[in-house]
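Methods: example folding runs. The two proteins below were folded one after another, and each record is reproduced exactly as written to the output file, sequence line first and structure-token line second.
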Amino acid sequence: MLKDKVLQSLVLFLGDRVSTASAICTRHGQDESWHPVMAPDAVCFPKSTDEVTKVVSVCASNNVPIIPFGAGTSLEGHIAALKGGVCIDLSKMTEIIAVRSEDMDCTVQPGVTRDQLDKYIRDQGLFFPIDPGAECTLGGMAATRASGTNAVRYGTMRENVLGLTVVLADGRIITTGSRARKSAAGYDLTRLFVGSEGGLGILTELVLRLHSIPEVISSAVVSFPTVEDAVNTVIATIQAAVPIARIELMDEVSIDAVNRYSKLSLPVIPHLFLEFHGTQAAVKEQAEIFSNLSKEFSGQDFQWSVEPEERSKLWVARHNAYYACLALRPGCKGLTTDVCVPISRLAECIAKTRLDVDQSHLLGPLLGHAGDGNFHVIFLVDPENRSEIKEAERLHDRMVERALAMGGTCTGEHGIGLGKIKHLQAEHGDGVDIMRRIKSALDPHNIMNPGKMLPL
């Protein structure tokens, strides 16, 4: 429980934007993952960097844990309050501070969502390409180094965050990076904080790289007899340097789920969902090259369209795939994996993973951002059934071991959070000790999101 003096100090400058209500605290202790609710003692709703600094300073003076909160859509227990403390909900920091179309960048507060930003800049011919699917905040996306369906062409948050304003654990405010397109000035602090999962500081402003809306956008869908055929088509497409914008894999189980959930009528076999960006001639050429490549691997029923309604229907279904998979077993939770491997090893990694899942008693739809070697299995488990959790964790461990042996990573986009701490150690070895030293230097009392990424 918070000391009365801490709560009084917070209320003094935030007023009714501090809450200790059970329902609000519980909501802020549960993300989209299977991990149990671990609620903070209080939730604060600041509106500015200055107010965040005041909250952090009060907490730092009293050694109170701080947990940053964006939209609560993370999948690895990032927002669980393991030691209680104060949750800083940044959802009221929603100002789009500046858009500089001539430089193709902008400055936003962390509570702005990708969809809000895109609607704001659309009439200037610009868009922000990082698209995790859920309605995430840009601050949360930067904190977890998010990516999504467009990463194969436009990169991840790592490549698209130019600079940050950060409140450190002692209340100091720093700015990192610049709006210049390159710099050799000192350590790259921006990249240090992108992906730090709230453990080094709180992001209160972001400078983001924007991109021009393509002249033509075309979506396509193609089916395959097997997942291996689909993945081999992906590998051939990447190796042929086709500048594809999106190339998403769904196995027959996930296709069945989206058919039911999104009212589609796709054949219940593996599919690739694709998107091509460019001029009319370039998009046509990309589609033709891909169509020919897919035929070499038994691709069938290739359909593509530039109609916005068709594109929207396809990608809404893909973005809702997580919830579609959960609906296959009502009342369950998704223990979601996200390994990433070099593209040349993707088919082998998926085939061995699929075999593991098929030999298990668990239902595990497989889908992924195949264009960058990142895929997921969503194990549908009863969170109250310890044997199901244990089996899902066993299968997850095998996936990670396999990915690391192939030169890959334990997480392509979800981050470490609470759920993958042991895998970080397996991947980086003594490098984790260096991470601990950085954490200790910036947060010596371990108040910034303690217990995430690194053990308590």
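Second run, written to the same file directly after the first:
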Amino acid sequence: MEGVSFRYPSRDQARVLDNVSLSVRPGELVAIVGGSGSGKSTLLKLALRFYEPSSGSLFLDGVPLDQLSEKELRSLITWLPQEPPLFPVSIYDNIAYGAAGSATPTAVKAAARAANCHDFISALPEGYDTHIGASGGDLSGGQRQRVAIARALLRDPALLMLDEPTSALDAVSAELVEEALRRASRTRSIVLITHKISQAALCDRIIVLELGRVVEEGSHAELVAKGGRYYEMLMQGTGGSSPGLSQAYSEPDGA
């Protein structure tokens, strides 16, 4: 992103992003943190071209996004929302859907292993042939999230974007998802919106947004040593093994 500003059409008096410039390098795991309404989710929506920036430019591998067809863009970028949809078919078909019908059993199982879900799937009586209910209701939240990550990895995107992937998960499930993300980041770029210090700390770089502006960026250690906005957010955390940035910073973006 170069000098990107944005206002939602229905609220054109409110600037959501203000002259934002940032980049994500190949194979880099980047966390974006900030308060509710700081513009975190808007960054993802612009990258997916759900909206066009009011000013500034977005590039993918040096190519302006508006020069890529929707098909090209969707083949290069995969987005996982907080509640990724699953379908009332088998677990195998849910994962294979990511490859638009061209997946092999070997590829599906490789993606499941990478997403940390092969073991629990194999332990089911019908394994990958297990039929799940609407929206994956037969699986736990952590299992649904990992199946969705497997589907995303099967697409083999250059850039994987996740919006609060563990916000509703218990500590054990969140750890399994985080391990899957660390594994996936070895071969692709990942942008992760999160309010959890445990997730931000595992990332190569953290970008701090406030009122639509990038106010800090660096590694967890660098930002803590700096003692700036990120450090203030950390000190407002609730404690425990995986504290949130603060109560004020724990709600998913509305914008």
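Comment on the second run: The mean pLDDT is 84.
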